[in-house]
Amino acid sequence: MFVNVVKSKIHRVKVTGADLNYIGSITIDEDLMDAANIIQGEKVQIVNNNNGERIETYAIPGPRNSGELTLNGAAARKVAVGDVLILITYGMMDIEKARSFKPALIFPDEKTNLLK
Asked: Considering the entire predicted model, what is its pTM?
């Protein structure tokens, strides 16, 4: 049997931009993506702590050490600059492997979105 488990989590990052006219996705500082083991194009669940919205899109890398976190396209309507988000990715694996799997959990600086 296979199960979906949390693969990566970036906990409590602030939205730095919302670009309705971009074609879609979430732009994430590439340093955060690397630390959380998130790859370009990977599906990301976004949980907005400010309004309760939960949306899914895909990750694209932003400039390193920038703290950028921009929602693009239709997702931009679901956030405001300054909202606090949790970003989660999931992986499917055998249930026995899942019992011992350790996800990448990242807790950036809440003011700057940079790695501590």
From this structure: 0.95
The yes-or-no answer on residue 25 being catalytic is yes
| Domain boundaries of the chain, sorted by first residue | 2-106
- Tell me if 57 is assigned to a ligand binding site: yes
What is the residue-level pLDDT of the chain in tens, covering all 116 positions?
999 999 999 999 999 999 999 988 999 999 999 999 999 999 999 999 999 999 999 999 999 999 999 999 999 999 999 999 999 999 999 999 999 999 999 999 999 999 99
Report how far apart, in Å, the C-alpha atoms of 15 and of each of 78, 101, 105 are. Answer: 11, 29, 19
2-106 belongs to which CATH class?
mainly beta
Task: Determine whether 58 is an active site residue.
Answer: yes
Task: Tell me how far apart the terminal alpha carbons of the chain are, to the nearest angstrom.
Answer: 38
Residue 98 marked as a ligand binder: no
